[in-house]
Automatic annotation (TrEMBL):
Protein's recorded name: Uncharacterized protein
Top-level taxonomic group: Eukaryota
Length: 501
């Protein structure tokens, strides 16, 4: 060992090598020590940044109604785009560049049609999957003024269907996310963002004119039924053109998407409830809708209820963003809201520009309703005759529209007895009493039958029911099991409840 040390001390090269090794070890140790110290400081700072639960916290509701704050986080790129948009909206943007960007729409709609679209004021209520795609399509196509109304914020789960949101937008209001992203595409478009919940009490202010310009069209992309009904009723009452998007959740077949009057959207659950509530307010038709005729089936997505353990915890209402808003899980294929939104935007563009359009109608059932109505008229006459009454001149206070309402809305297009959907008929559920004839004026006899008295069956079931109940001595409880009786009674009570709203 001593001889090795002596050699090192006498050898200049070995001395240099030893010095390098020792220096390297010292430097490596210093680096490792510094990194460890930095980690400790970072952990310390992170722990210090977490407030103690015992301390007083300056935290309240996100805003007065639980929505996102009216704030955005802008990058330098966003700030530059916003500045450009402000100048463009004040007219500091080359008109030739705008027309070049809109060249394809221009040759399609013609100069006159594009001019109408560029001067239009359109309101979009609901800026989620459907509304965001509708807004993006309108902005890209040249729509001049867009008012966006939505109380909600972008979430991670929004990104499977939102038109323009990115990870950077999570936690920001949907209306400002749309404005910020679309201003980078069409900086000359004027946006009026309302980070608010739409409701009947605020409808007048939220749908008010913009600089004296009444809305040319309103788009309903709301998924809350009460808000949807309030919007559609207000627009219908005040003569504002409106198009409503019905449910895109649980849908997967793009070939079954139709554009038509709300009275034709019979296969959509959201539309069904909306129609019934509007009917109670005196609105039966005259509202354009985008809806799907796709029916649910084995293996298809279903509306998922909350897990039992959530109910066991109590306060289920706290799980929703707002009271009365859906707290259940609605499966949504990301492509379907986009298709609904594009159909809505397409309809608005064609309407505003005056472009000729005639949509393929969904399956019409008017002939079926006429047949059911005629059969019901004959049934009432035979019932009157069996009671010893003269059926001459007897009329029933039921219309084709009433037949469609009872069949589609109350009984979902199926027999209450067997659940079959073919060869349907309407028949009184119980045998009428002495008040069968409601009135008689100049030979006109009016049957006392009301919609709440009718039940939907197949023709064969109705024939048997007529023989045993209406002409015989049996009661419905004698013929049908408790499940069928309960279903009919519930549907009849539901009809009365909707009618008395």
């Amino acid at each position: 060992m001593s001889s090795w040390i002596e050699r090192v001390s006498q050898s200049h090269k070995l001395q240099l090598a030893a010095t390098a090794v020792v220096s390297g070890c010292l430097v490596g140790g210093a680096i490792v020590g510094l990194q460890a110290a930095k980690r400790q400081y970072k952990v310390y700072d992170l722990k210090e940044s977490i407030p103690d639960l015992r301390d007083e916290q300056d935290v309240g509701h996100i805003n007065s109604f639980g929505g996102a704050q009216d704030t955005t986080r802008n990058s330098k790129e966003d700030e530059a785009a916003t500045a450009l948009a402000r100048r463009a909206q004040l007219g500091d943007y080359d008109e030739e560049l705008i027309l070049e960007q809109l060249a394809r729409n221009r040759v399609f709609l013609t100069d006159d049609g594009l001019s109408k679209l560029r001067n239009a004021f359109i309101i979009v209520v609901g800026c989620g999957g459907v509304g965001s795609h509708a807004t993006a399509a309108l902005a890209r196509s040249g729509a001049g003024k867009l008012r966006l109304i939505d109380f909600d914020q972008v979430t991670l789960s929004s990104l499977n269907r939102h038109a323009v949101a990115t990870l950077a937008d999570v936690g920001t209001p949907k209306v400002h996310c749309l404005r910020k992203r679309l201003e980078q595409i069409t900086p000359w478009t004027h946006f009026d963002c309302h980070n608010e919940l739409f409701g009947a009490s605020s409808a007048e202010a939220q749908l008010a004119p913009w600089d004296g310009h009444r809305p040319d069209y309103v788009i309903d992309a709301i998924d809350n039924i009460d808000s949807k009904v309030a919007l559609l009723h207000y627009c219908k009452k005040n003569g504002i053109p409106v198009v409503s998007s019905m449910g895109a959740g649980c849908k997967s077949d793009p070939t079954r998407i139709f554009v038509g009057d709300i009275s034709a959207s019979t296969d959509d659950p959201l539309s069904r409830t909306t129609r019934r509530k509007l009917r109670a307010l005196g609105v039966k038709d005259g509202i354009s809708t985008v809806f799907s005729t796709e029916k649910t089936g084995p293996g298809k997505a279903q509306l998922l209820p909350l897990a039992e353990d959530e109910f066991a915890k109590g306060s289920v209402g706290e799980l929703g963003v707002l009271p009365d808003f859906r707290a259940r899980i609605l499966p949504v294929l990301g492509t379907m809201p986009a298709m609904f939104g594009m159909c809505v935007a397409n309809h608005v563009m064609l309407e505003i520009s005056g472009y000729p359009h005639e949509y393929l109608p969904s399956k019409s059932r008017d002939k079926m309703y006429d047949g059911i109505l005629a059969a019901l008229q004959g049934l009432e006459e035979r019932t009157a005759r069996s009671m010893g009454l003269d059926p001459l001149g007897l009329r029933i206070p039921v219309t084709q529209e009433d037949v469609g309402y009872v069949v589609e809305e109350v009984y979902r297009g199926r027999s209450a007895v067997s659940g079959l959907a073919a060869r349907l008929a309407l028949v009184r559920w119980r045998k009428p009493g002495k008040d069968f004839i409601n009135s008689e004026i100049e030979g006109q006899k009016s049957s006392s039958v009301e919609l709440k008295d009718l039940v939907c069956m197949t023709k064969d079931e109705a024939t048997r029911h007529e023989k045993l109940v209406l002409k015989g001595d049996s009661k419905p409880e004698d013929l049908y099991d408790a499940k069928v009786v309960k279903l009919v009674e519930e549907r009849m009570a539901e009809e009365v409840r909707f009618r008395n709203m």
